[in-house]
Amino acid sequence: MSATLIEKIFSRHAGRLVRAGDTVDVAIDVRVARDFGGANVVKNLQTHHLHVADPEKTFFTFDCNPTGSDQKYAANQQLCRDYAREHGIRVFDIDSGIGTHVVIDNGLIGPGDTFVSTDSHANILGAIGAFGQGMGDVDIARAFATGTVWFNIPPSIKINLIGTCPDSCTAKDVALRLMQEFGANGLLGYAAELYGAAVEHFTLSDRITIASMATEMGGIILLFPPSEEIIEYCTRVGAGFKPIYADPDAHYTKTVNIDIAGLEPLISRPGHPEDVVPVRQVEGRPVDSVFIGSCTNGRFTDLLSAAAILKDREKAEHVVLKIVPATDAIWQQCLHAGLFDVFKKAGALISNAGCAGCAAGQVGQNGPGEVTVSTGNRNFVGKQGKGEVYLASPATAAASAIAGFIVSADRLAHSAGRKKPSAKTISKTSEVFKTSEVVPEAKPTLVRGRVRIIPRDNIDTDMIYHNRYLSITDIHEMAQYTFNNLTGWQDFAQKAQEGDILVVGHNFGCGSSRQQAVDCFKSLGIQLIIAKSFGAIYARNAINAALPILVADLDQQEVQDGDPITVDLLAGEIRLKNNKTVQAEPFTDIQRQIYLRGGLL
Q: What's the pLDDT tens digit per position in 209-226?
């Protein structure tokens, strides 16, 4: 029978033919914990007396705080090192770089393989035709212990890129065009496959850039069928694999055609990666800082494109230019190729390899009122600091650093280096899940509580639990920081009561894989979250932690903040105070099993 790319990958790793909608245990070829999630993974393993199933397939990567400059991060890293030594696990330490790039470049994974990590951008592995998924520390602990993880096989969307990009456009512009097309949740719960003449010629760096932004569209993964170049690269670095391709007659939920022939340089406006406009629309916006790097644009070719623009030029005097390669190998490549000489003469600060701007306290963060052009994949409020962050390509970022205001590289000729900011201003703004004995009475299936409504869509994990608190591993400390970064609801933790039921909009919990964004609600005593839809990683993190979640569309004309409601979790029945009943999606079999037993582990 015909199958999509993701169905074929999962079938190979489940040991039987699977289809979209099936829930299966899947063998994981490579399982990784990072520095911020790794300590909790270790604690979960130790608490539940679990052992590492296969140390040769198990790794730690320290990329969130590669300088070890934060005391709590340093403590977490050392805890992981000690555990790794005891169990024979390899550590890619603070001198290695971003874990998703490291596993590709070290040949640990190849096309058709499976990979999980505490990194919400583990779906970067889609760039080589492999499956990658970011998960919370509970999931990763189980993967360490059993070598398997449960999955609900997602349906697939086929995306055809029509035409060829103009010379002025880059892979980042293609990624932003996809953001423009699908928005923050247009791929929610889907796997997508990319095809077209342009796709066949995309380099590994191009594919990584595009695949890395699947999470920002709500997608499970963006999969690229491996090209000859990708196969040659993976073979050269030592990966053992057998590439997989979708069948020509595979069934897709829908097919989307996107014309990129006339694409121009694009940029995301602050606060929302999906708020994409042409660069020319915001041209002239004064810039305080520029960040070039991240898992999205920290490859050698990304930095080479920036160097081509910066060569023999200087950044604007008032601009701080920060450059961070994705891995140490790329750092060394830049050094030997003379790129660092170009960057330093242009006035840039160069840091050691790592995630940088996406992690609190690292190179790339900005301050209140600061305007930054970043090559990252997220510009959620507070994610990269307290200022405004625009997302763009390395070419646009480098050009803006030179001009001192936002401008695309193809228009830089109209703006001499060191030019003062333009007068033009813009205001700053189941069967497959083998469990131990289930004890139904341990968890309530009928709950009653006070409704707390936050009528917003796309509430991301940085709004729920900001990254500056990620080094906290004691769940009892987490409650106080709940919604600490959500404007208008910073006092939520102080006003919440034990047993409250949270009601929110679409795509709740989009963003990172951090388990703390679930655990903070457990710490606070929130007994249920009802949303119109959930981010894919967030949903499984909540399920695995036995925090009840339901998908339902509650009419806010009928339920008000503070109303009491009664909910039958297993049936998905919500009874309002006027006795009207609203039907939610009931617990799935696997959600019921995990909830009743008190959590995945």
A: 999 999 999 999 999 999
Q: Would you state the structure tokens that stand for residue 407, as one six-digit string?
A: 């401008």
Place of tokens 């928005």: 183
Q: How big is the chain by its Cα radius of gyration, in Å? A: 23
Domains of the chain in sequence order = 5-259 (3.30.499.10), 266-414 (3.30.499.10), 440-596 (3.20.19.10)
Give backbone dihedrals phi and psi of 82, rounded to 5 degrees, phi first: -60, -45
Residues facing 59 on adjacent strands: 32, 90
Distance from C-alpha of 472 to C-alpha of 469, rounded to nearest angstrom? 6
Strand partners, 30: 115
pLDDT tens digits for range 474-529: 899 999 999 999 999 999 999 999 999 999 999 999 998 999 999 999 999 999 99
Q: Measure CA 119 to chain center.
A: 7
Rounded-to-integer distance, Cα 79 and Cα 43, Å: 9
In angstroms, the CA 453 to CA 320 distance is 41
Other Cβ atoms closer than 10 A to 23: 17
512: nearest Cα among 136, 169, 111 = 136
Q: Are 410 and 396 in contact (CB under 8 A)?
A: no
CA 278 to CA 504: how far, in whole Å?
32
Please report which helix (H) or strand (E) contains residue 178, including its range: helix 171-182
Helix (H, G, I), strand (E, B) or coil at 148: strand
What is the C-alpha to C-alpha distance for residues 566 and 580, in angstroms, rounded to an integer?
11
User: What is d(CA 107, CA 239) in angstroms, rounded to the nearest whole number?
Assistant: 4
Token match 């039958």: residue? 568
Tokens of 71: 């005391």
The conformational region for residue 327 under phi > 0 = left, psi -120 to 50 = alpha, else beta, is beta
Q: Which residues of 93-124 are buried (b: 16+ CB within 10 A; e: fewer)?
A: bbebbbbbbbbbbbbbbbbbbbbbbbbbbbbb
Query: Could you tell me which of 212, 305, 265 has the C-alpha nearest to residue 390?
Result: 265
